[in-house]
Write a structure and sequence with these properties.
By secondary structure, the protein is an alpha+beta fold. It is 53% helix and 18% strand. The chain is built from 13 helices and 10 strands. Strands 2-9-4-7-10 form a 5-stranded antiparallel β-sheet. It has a 3-stranded antiparallel β-sheet with strand order 6-5-8. A two-stranded parallel ribbon has the order 1-3. β5 (58-62) and β6 (65-69) form a beta hairpin.
């Protein structure tokens, strides 16, 4: 008896000649009739798929059940579902967000509206959601924004993708629960995230206290910390430490500054403090890191 092949998102992307896969975690693309009629499902996929029908209709077979999707229908495919597209209309247009299971599950676990819930149980209750025009437009816009973020260069691409995926989760939570999850203030929080990242990139060398950034945003430290954690899953401090670590790496690779000079430039108390920080992040000393990079060059 033959076994069904289990394929991951990277394999599906390669098999169907999709472009702009973000790492091995997600891909977002639009599809028309020609694409849908030649798409290859080599087996059972290990990823989530959120599909929005923009125009026309699509017919799928999923786990031996027929699913018919019309305009403004949102379809959530879970990992390990056995799915194949059977037919579509000539004028069909749809947008598809595919996210590898481990990546999306980690996002779900960090989202306050899904905490304590099993993603499989949550999404099995709503495989198809019939959206109104305004809801469909909201989903389309955020999925399109994810597609643009993947395609275009962006200094904070990882942060923006996580933020946009969180908006998807907020919208899904609203649909599942029927309750308002305060999506109206996401634009305000989006601005806080963007301004914080800009301020952090300009000031991290000298300012690494949450209070400094909260003061410049005219909000409390608690609200800033909660907003950054909610939108990205990371803390304010982790962003500042990552900026700091990356700058040390750049200076070690591209300058001849001594460790003491780098420590002074980055506002460490002394060379030992920088060395301890760098070793904790990388597992090696700054000098060993510099030597390894120069030997490779």
């Amino acid at each position: 008896m033959s076994r069904t092949y289990l394929y991951n998102l990277e394999e599906f992307t390669e098999q169907n000649h999709l472009e702009h896969l973000y790492g091995s975690a997600l891909v977002c693309f639009t599809a028309d009739r020609d694409f849908l009629r030649q798409v290859i499902h080599p087996g059972i996929g290990s990823f989530y798929s959120i599909n929005l029908i923009v125009d026309g209709w699509e017919d799928y077979q999923i786990n031996n059940h027929q699913i018919h999707l019309e305009m403004h229908d949102l379809f959530v495919k879970q990992p390990y579902d056995n799915i194949a597209i059977e037919a579509c209309s000539d004028e069909v247009s749809s947008i598809h967000l595919l996210v590898e299971k481990n990546y999306f599950d980690s996002m779900i676990a960090q989202n306050e509206h899904f905490q304590g819930q099993n993603p499989i149980e949550v999404f099995s209750s709503i495989p198809v959601i019939h959206l109104g025009e305004v809801q469909a437009a909201s989903f389309y816009q955020i999925m399109y924004n994810i597609q643009k973020t993947i395609v275009n260069p962006h200094l904070y691409k990882n942060e923006m993708i996580k933020y946009q995926l969180n908006i998807c989760l907020f919208l899904l939570a609203e649909l599942i629960s029927g309750n308002d999850v305060n999506t109206h203030d996401l634009k305000h929080k989006d601005n806080i995230l963007k301004i914080f990242l800009h301020l952090a990139s300009k000031n991290f060398k000298r300012e690494r206290q949450v209070q400094f950034y909260a003061d410049r945003l005219n909000i409390s430290t608690t609200y800033l910390s909660r907003t950054i954690k909610e939108l990205t899953g990371n803390t304010v401090l982790s962003y500042l430490m990552n900026f700091l670590y990356n700058e040390i790496c750049i200076q070690l690779k591209t300058t001849d500054k001594t460790i003491s000079e780098i420590a002074d430039d980055l506002n460490f108390s002394d060379q030992s403090a920088l060395t301890n920080f760098f070793r904790a992040k990388s597992g090696v000393s700054p000098l060993a890191y510099r030597k390894s990079k120069k030997s490779k060059g």
